[in-house]
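Subject: Protein record for review, amino acid sequence with backbone structure tokens
How to read it: Take the token row as a discrete description of the fold.
Enclosed: The protein record, placed directly beneath this head.
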Amino acid sequence: VAELCVCDLLVAQCDVNCCCDPDCSAAEFSLFTTCSVPVVTGDSRLCSQKAATYSLDVEANPPEMIFKLIDHINPNVFCIHTANYKQALSFTSPETPTSESFDQLLKQFGSATFSTEFESWSVNSDSQISSDANETYRYEYGVPIQTVDAFVRLPSPVVSSWCSDANPAGFLVNQATKCSRLVSVERCSTIQAVSMMFYINSSILAKWHEFVFQVNITVQSIVVQSLNGVRTLLDRNEVLRLPAILDELCINIVLGVSYHITYTEAGEIIEAAASFVLGAITKETLSIQQSFEISFMQVNTKPVPLSGNPGYVVGLPVRAGFRPQGYPSPLPLTDITSGIIQSTDKYGQLTILQSASNWDCLAAAGARAPVLFGYNMISGCKLRITAAMECQLLAQTLLDLLKGQNFPEYVASFGNSQAQDVLDWVPISHLHTSEQVKIYNIFQSSCQIPVSLEIEVQWTKYGSLVNPQARIVNVTATVTTAPLNQLPSGRERTVPITSSVVFTDISSPAEPGYKARPTINVKLPFDFFFPFV
């Protein structure tokens, strides 16, 4: 920084009030009124760096310049500790187009979007398979799914709403995009992106053990959409329908594509299918909107409805399940292959008693209400007890009424927790309390019957302060019992039965008067991490 001088603009001449200009003499310094650039630093985003300071000593005769080299500390919360990527400290000189390279540069950079990395994806499949067959096609999360000639395309809007075909589909990254594309009846048969062949003509490179093979993309279903929006599912999917002109219409135009990828636990793609929505355009049509989607499913598993991704969404049901039979409770942390057994009905995994219109508990038996995340609920009924009822049998009936037939053992901590990830499931703790404790005469018959079930779900905000995710950390089911004395013959007694759910946010202060920690509300400049991604 001692050699940098941003105000030195004139060659071999002294710039006025430029205190760092080496061309200025002492006589010229005496005429300065101030230093136009008092501090010279390198990158202002660094946490600590050297700074050159310039000032004028006006008390001296004649006035003279004072130079100091000091350590400058950046007070910003976000700063760069070390700039160790030397190539980013300067811009590389772009290639100068020539008559020989112009066509190649135009092909690479002439479109609306471009990337210098696409050439590395379009590799020679034979050489790639022979040189790196052990590691290349065992996919990891987010890695572009490679095909024989490039990668699986998932068109998406980039700068504007127009489709860019250069968006690769990432492994295990579920995506859904919509974009617009220019079309015309005269050119419809020559536009590749509106043809089914464009999306299935290349095979996916996959790997099984030590062998690399190709997985063809099959057609799973074809839906034809009329001009007025009516959709019809075709019976035969094996017929490839290409765009064609028919009576001033262009039919079989691709309006939507949905990829379905099946993979193994080791990251090996074993099956790929595509579902199409085809339509027609008229001569007046200038553009169409296309929709694209890709989803992934592990082999030998069934799709389980989610309640958030990753955190719970308010109003969606809490996901719950059971441990497999024969496994201890709780599940051992080392046993991650057993998984959690869930019901396919997401609204029936964790439920409470649903109130009946006549408040009769016997009439409400079997009616359940789902526990929805973030919703505090209470329900109840009334039970009429007579002297002829057996207490022990009545207690079991009420317990089944409160808990239901299949009360779960585990609750998913996140809305998208997978069944095989046992560490992502929270065991339900059970407590038993009594409304009152009395000492009865041994000749007086008395027993305890359950009268209420309270489920407390403790959750916390997890992740970024900007977009916190709801995570369940503890679930407690408390059954409260009450003593039931033997009734005289002919007498009746009415007992209220209640069931409730309470959600407690333990990430917020629980004690009154407790001062929460201050948060930082700042916005980084758009180029703060340049040239890093």
